[in-house]
């Protein structure tokens, strides 16, 4: 859309700016402040330069947490995106059952994250949980508190349960916006179901899918509450993802300097990825002429 | 030609039938996967702790409402819900109030640094709460807002304002600019035009934005727990503390969990027709 050049529009943006400056810029500056200083308590600070950054960059603990985080986000995306698309295609298109599906699928999205953790914590226990008990009956001793593999599987399935619906709802909305004429044309051409998907549905869903991938990547990269409730980052540090590790460092051990340096690099990684996505998305918007 | 249609029609019907069934099967399995964990929570909330730990049951044999009674008669429990809802509503109203004019500016005007500003706003949606937990704690302590509802509401604007701007901008772009121009010619002032004419036009957008603000504020735990102690403690945080303190009363814990699902379920039910529309704009 052609927009009018008008710098007075800044006045409309001003409230947002003031609010976000208070809730984002000031705290972020505190973090920057800590990241270059050291303290021995009593609010006495010493200039530390880039020392903490060097520490964090060479720390095995951070490397390991970063590796786990990448693996987790990768697995999550690899499962949720295809599954979400498949569910969206299987959903009824309209009518009563479509509403029922929408409401039921959206339920996990609105459950507080620690309750999600609690649900799966209970479900995986072999004495009182359905899944743990069932696995026990068929001879698998399920113990996510002891066995790292079990912990990982539990956390991944929990996240699939929690968030696949978001991908599905987005893809569903993308599908809904495809005009019926496209399908009729495909029918005339006797296109196979796969070809309809590959050449009509997938390209039309491109925009919403990018957003789905972006959101799922970001949120899985920041995941804290759910694995914290289920495994507490354990066993050992098998499920200590970046946020869990960071909170341990900042609020648990009160290592402000390293934690702050860690935060800044953590944020920069996320910023970089979102910038790439944002650029791709805006370019897509332009080519589609939206 | 008659031959081809004859052979064509039956095969098509035969192929079409099983596919419809496969879709239903997939859907039913997926919905079961969604609902079984929730069922398990509900089931345990109707059981006494002794029954839960006494033996494995698929449904409550002696259903009891005692767990709910514990929560609804104890102020330290139910105040958690009041606190949570208070700051969630405050946050939703605040986010929408500042996001509406900003989204209008982004959708209608070009101005100095608009694209950078928009991206910078979005990055706040991406900021990990873990990064902000400690500085928020210090900031709100130093201005004397620690353990108040407004502190949590303000902290949650970190990710909700960008989200609201993003969603609303998408809806506003769909409103033709001629409407604005006509209104100005008719002598409407900007505030009057905005409230009387423009806001009703994007009512569904405001609904969708409110839904997402409510949702993300309601489910968040890390910041709300860090910023509160007693007076404004959210239900989620009361739950985590009870887990460690009272030796795990599973029944009460599950009842508390079930009660946290109810507001969300109600909200979904009311906006169910708009959710798909909001998603359709490709903005969440």
TrEMBL record, chain A:
One Pfam short name: BPD_transp_1
Assigned protein family: Belongs to the binding-protein-dependent transport system permease family.
Keyword Translocase attached: no
Chief location: membrane
TM segment ranges: 12-36, 70-89, 96-123, 151-175, 196-218, 259-280
Domain of life: Bacteria
Metal-binding listed as a keyword: no
Alphabetical list of SUPFAM superfamilies matching this protein: MetI-like
Membrane topology according to the record: Multi-pass membrane protein
Places the protein is found: Cell membrane
Protein name per its UniProtKB record: Sugar ABC transporter permease
Domain ABC transmembrane type-1: 66-277
Keywords for the protein's UniProt record, in alphabetical order: Membrane, Transmembrane, Transmembrane helix, Transport
CDD domains linked to this entry: TM_PBP2 (cd06261)
InterPro entries per record: MetI-like, MetI-like_sf, Sugar_ABC_transporter
């Amino acid at each position: 859309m052609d927009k009018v050049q008008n710098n007075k529009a800044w006045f409309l943006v001003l409230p947002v700016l003031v609010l976000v400056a208070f809730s984002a810029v000031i705290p972020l500056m505190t973090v920057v402040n800590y990241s270059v200083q050291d303290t021995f308590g009593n609010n006495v600070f010493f200039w530390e330069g880039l020392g903490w950054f060097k520490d964090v960059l060479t720390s095995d603990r951070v490397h390991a947490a970063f590796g786990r985080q990448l693996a987790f986000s990768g697995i999550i995306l690899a499962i949720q995106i295809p599954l979400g698309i498949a569910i969206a295609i299987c959903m009824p298109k309209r009518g009563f059952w479509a509403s029922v599906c929408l409401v039921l699928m959206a339920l996990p999205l609105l459950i507080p994250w620690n309750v999600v953790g609690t649900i799966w914590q209970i479900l995986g226990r072999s004495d009182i949980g359905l899944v743990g008990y069932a696995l026990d009956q068929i001879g698998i001793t399920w113990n996510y508190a002891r066995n790292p593999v079990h912990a990982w599987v539990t956390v991944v399935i929990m996240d699939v349960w929690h968030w696949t619906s978001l991908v599905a709802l987005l893809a569903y909305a993308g599908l809904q916006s495809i005009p019926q004429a496209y399908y009729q044309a495909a029918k005339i051409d006797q296109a196979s179901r796969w070809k309809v998907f590959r050449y009509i549905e997938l390209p039309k869903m491109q925009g919403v899918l990018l957003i789905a991938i972006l959101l799922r990547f970001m949120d899985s990269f920041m995941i804290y509450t759910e694995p914290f409730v289920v495994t507490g980052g354990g066993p050992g540090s098998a499920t200590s993802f970046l946020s869990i590790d960071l909170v341990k460092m900042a609020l648990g051990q009160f290592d402000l300097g390293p934690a702050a340096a860690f935060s800044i690099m953590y944020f920069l990684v996320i910023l970089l990825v979102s910038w790439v996505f944002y650029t791709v998305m805006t370019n897509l918007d332009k080519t589609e002429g939206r | 030609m008659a031959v081809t249609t004859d052979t064509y029609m039956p095969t098509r019907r035969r192929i079409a039938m099983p596919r419809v069934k496969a879709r239903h099967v997939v859907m039913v399995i997926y919905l079961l996967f969604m609902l079984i964990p929730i069922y398990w929570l509900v089931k345990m909330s109707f059981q006494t702790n002794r029954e839960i730990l006494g033996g494995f049951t698929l449904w409550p044999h002696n259903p009891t409402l005692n767990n709910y009674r514990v929560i609804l008669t104890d102020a330290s429990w139910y105040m958690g819900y009041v606190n949570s809802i208070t700051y969630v509503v405050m946050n939703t109203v605040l986010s929408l109030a500042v996001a509406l004019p900003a989204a209008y500016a982004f959708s209608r005007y070009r101005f100095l640094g608009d694209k950078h500003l928009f991206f910078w706003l979005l990055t706040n949606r991406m900021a990990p709460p873990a990064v902000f937990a400690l500085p928020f704690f210090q900031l709100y302590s130093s201005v004397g807002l620690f353990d108040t509802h407004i502190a949590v509401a303000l902290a949650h604007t970190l990710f909700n304002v960008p989200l609201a701007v993003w969603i609303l901008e998408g809806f506003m772009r769909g409103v033709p600019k001629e409407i604005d121009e006509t209104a100005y010619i008719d002598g409407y002032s900007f505030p009057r035009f905005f409230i009387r004419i423009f806001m009703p036009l994007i009512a569904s957008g405001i609904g969708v934005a409110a839904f997402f603000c409510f949702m993300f504020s309601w489910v968040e735990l890390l910041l709300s727990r860090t910023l509160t102690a007693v007076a404004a403690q959210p239900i989620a945080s009361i739950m985590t503390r009870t887990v460690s303190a009272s030796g795990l009363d599973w029944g009460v814990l599950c009842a508390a969990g079930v009660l946290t699902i109810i507001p969300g379920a109600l909200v979904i039910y009311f906006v169910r027709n708009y959710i798909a529309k909001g998603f359709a704009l490709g903005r969440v």
